Structure formats: structure tokens, C-alpha cells
Amino acid sequence: MFAQLSSSFSRSRLISSFFVGSICALTALSAQAYERIVAMSPDVADIIVALGATDKLVGKDATNSHPALKDVPKVGMHRNITAESVLAVKPDLVLGSYMVQPVSVYQRLNDLNVKAANVAPKEGVDYFANSIKATGIYIGNRSEAAQLADHWSQDMQPLAKTGKRYILSYDGRIVAGKGTVGDELICRAGGINAANVSGLKPMSREGWLPSLM
Prior knowledge:
Elements: H1 2-31, E1 37-39, H2 42-50, E2 57-60, H3 83-87, E3 93-97, H4 105-111, E4 115-120, H5 125-139, H6 142-155, E5 165-166, E6 174-176, H7 181-188, E7 192-193, E8 200-202, H8 205-212
């Protein structure tokens, strides 16, 4: 009888030790959250700001003009970015989207032992909510990201047409033409995309006015 009790007690201690160890391991993993993040594309940087993790950004794409990121170092332009320029700010996590070129930079950074992930591999409004959630998981703001993604999806319901003409540009040089996310955003807002081009194309500001008339 004593031997059975002793054996049961030993098994109980072993099970308790296992659960305690598992909890400690999970706590340790949570404590190892990324603290030095580079956003290689402006869309991902804006998500990080919206999720309240601006203080973790140590590098951004040169076209991002968000006021909250005015003091964050630029690591190059997303359309032609290099691993070396990103590594210069010593990140422990690098995030970007389909906008980043060359796409091989993600693998290049991972090969150099810096975690890099394309959180938005496809262009499209319908994919953006998943991009928000993926970014939230990486930066440790999973619940906030889920709420933001739901809010985004609700706000993307098409509005009544207004007949107003718009031009959308990230940097004042490249405009969002037909078939782009910018084009879809304008249409869902009830407007008309005045950029009479397909894809992302350069357009001088002098060319904007006739398009808007």
C-alpha cells in the first residue's frame, strides 16, 4: 500500500513538473518577442503603427510618410531594396508585402539568419485583413490585430457612387491605375479612379490635373 501511494505521489510530482515546465517554456517564448523590426513596404509599416508597435520599428521604406514614423531610419525603397541596407539597422525581424522587390530579398535575409516574412504575398483588398492578422502574430499583438482586421473588413463594404474623381499615389510619383489595390479602394469608396493607366505607373504632378478634370 505504501509502495502504491509512493508511486502515485511520484507520478503526480512528475506530471506537475511537466506542466510547470511547459508553462515556463511558453512564458519564455512570449518574452522573446521581436523588438527591432524593419518594415520594407509602406503598407506593413502602417499596420504596425495601427497596432501600436511604432516603438519597435527601427527601419522603414523610403516612401512611407506616416507622421508617427518621421524619425525612423529609411532602409531603401521597396521597389529596389537590398538585404545589406536592411541589415544596417540590425533588425531581429523584417516584414514586407508583395510590393517589395526583388522578392528574393526575403530568402536572402533568412539565409543571413534574420527572420524575414512576406505577410501580404498577394495584392488585393480581400487579402489585407489576413495581412493584418499575420503582422499581429509576428509582433505579439494577436488580439489587437484580429480586432483591427474585423474593423477593416467592415469598413471595406462598398459605398454609394459619388461620381468624384481621385488619384492615389504613395510617393507623389507613382500612381495606382486600373487593377491595383488603390483602384479598388477608390471604387469601394464610391469614386472614380482618374489615373487612366493599368497597374502602378509613373505620372508627373503636371499630368494629374487634366486627369482630375
